[in-house]
Design brief:
Layout (H helix, E strand, L loop, with lengths): L8 E5 L4 E5 L2 E5 L7 E4 L2 E4 L7 E8 L31 H15 L5 E4 L8 H15 L3 E4 L2 H4 L10 E6 L2 E6 L13 H13 L4 E4 L21 H13 L3 E6 L6 E3 L9 E3 L9 E8 L2 E8 L3 H10 L7 H6 L2 H4 E5 L7
Parallel strand pairs: 6-7, 7-8, 10-11, 11-12, 12-14
Antiparallel strand pairs: 1-2, 2-3, 4-5, 6-15, 9-10, 13-14, 15-16, 16-17
Helix pairs in contact: 1-2
Length: 345
């Protein structure tokens, strides 16, 4: 799809703002009332509520892919196309997308920035250094990050700390390494589950759990041994842990390059979340606002002119099916993460 064929999309809804993208045009509507029905530019939606006092704000990105030069390529399957490259003389698109994401995130002055995997394209140290040059330079000790399959597949020994914890007012952020050396799929090791169980059992505040890979659905009729996300046995163990530890109010992944929320019978209303990538359409980052009685996820589309020019080109990947897959529904992007019965205040 070319920019001239693009249709208007309601991208983001917060407590008092809605953002509509129409190709390269960005329409921001501010001053809306929280928790109310709205009609703006033909879109009907409900603004997010404010669940008590605002305590902290942090942000996440994933699948930043420094060093990548081709979008939409699936190894050994040229018929999947189309593929996209920048034109001669243009800057590399991971640099364009990530620098724009960093500028937008910096503007909200987050207490923490979480990068949940796929820091590089080919798992090389120069690509990793390029990631640090953009993100560590901007956020310093506010930055926490973990590897993804693009690092582990190439056995790049960086960002592989099994469990990382960062405390904010009203929330505990736990980041786990779900990647496996030499593999593309994910796992959660017994020692990680044990440590996470101890953290959740004693936490004095709600826990938001982050990792690169998404979980397998325990209700699925298929149980592939090499599932694309966290392998089924480990997914089941992680879901069981969350089910018995009400301190954990959500799990947030990347890897699939899509916006999606699933909920499982064992964990009730707990969201199991995937957030779209930075590097191509829709070009996203997620804001989290911690409140007294819940947390808001608000996904933003990176909106500099250069970023939108690239993401409007790449929305046509995979025979034009990529846009609907990656964008998801509004409820997959912007929603309230509620406290559970027994969640520590």
């Amino acid at each position: 799809m070319t920019p001239s064929q693009a249709v208007a999309e309601l991208t983001t809804v917060g407590t008092d703002e809605a953002v509509i993208h129409d190709g390269a045009a960005v329409h921001r509507h501010a001053g809306l009332a929280p928790g109310t029905d709205q009609e703006v530019d033909g879109f009907h939606f409900h603004t997010l509520p404010e669940p008590g006092a605002h305590l902290a704000t942090f942000a996440t990105v994933n699948d930043v892919h420094f060093g990548e030069t081709v979008c939409g390529e699936v190894g050994g399957h040229p018929e999947v196309g189309p593929v996209f490259r920048v034109d001669d003389g243009e800057p590399p698109y991971p640099e364009v997308m990530n620098r724009a994401a960093v500028a937008e995130i910096d503007a909200i002055d987050p207490a923490l920035v979480v990068v949940k995997g796929d820091l590089t394209s080919e798992g090389t140290m120069p690509e990793y250094d390029a990631f640090l040059d953009v993100y560590a330079r901007a956020f310093g000790d506010r930055l926490v990050y973990v590897r993804g399959n693009h690092e582990s597949w190439h056995r790049l020994a960086v960002a592989d700390q099994p469990v990382q914890v960062a405390d904010l007012p009203g929330a505990r952020i736990v980041l786990i390494d779900t990647s496996v050396d030499g593999a593309e799929n994910g796992a959660v090791r017994p020692e990680q589950l044990e440590e996470l169980d101890g953290i959740a059992a004693t936490s004095d505040r709600p826990i938001l759990l982050f990792g690169h890979h998404h979980v397998w659905d325990p209700a699925s009729a298929e149980r592939p041994e090499r599932y694309f996300g966290i392998v089924p046995d480990d997914s089941e163990r992680l879901v069981e842990l969350v089910a018995r530890r009400p301190a954990i109010i959500g799990y947030f992944a990347g890897h699939t390059h899509r916006n999606r929320v699933r909920r499982f019978a064992a964990t009730g209303g707990v969201p199991w979340v995937e957030v779209a990538c930075v590097k191509d359409y829709p070009g996203a980052w997620a804001e989290y606002r911690v409140h007294e009685r819940g947390v808001l996820q608000i996904v933003h589309r990176i909106s500099t002119p250069e970023a939108l020019a690239w993401t409007e080109r790449t929305r046509g990947m995979f025979h034009g099916l990529y846009a609907s897959y990656a964008f998801g529904e509004l409820a997959d992007r912007c929603f309230v993460i509620e406290h559970r019965p027994g969640t520590p205040a």
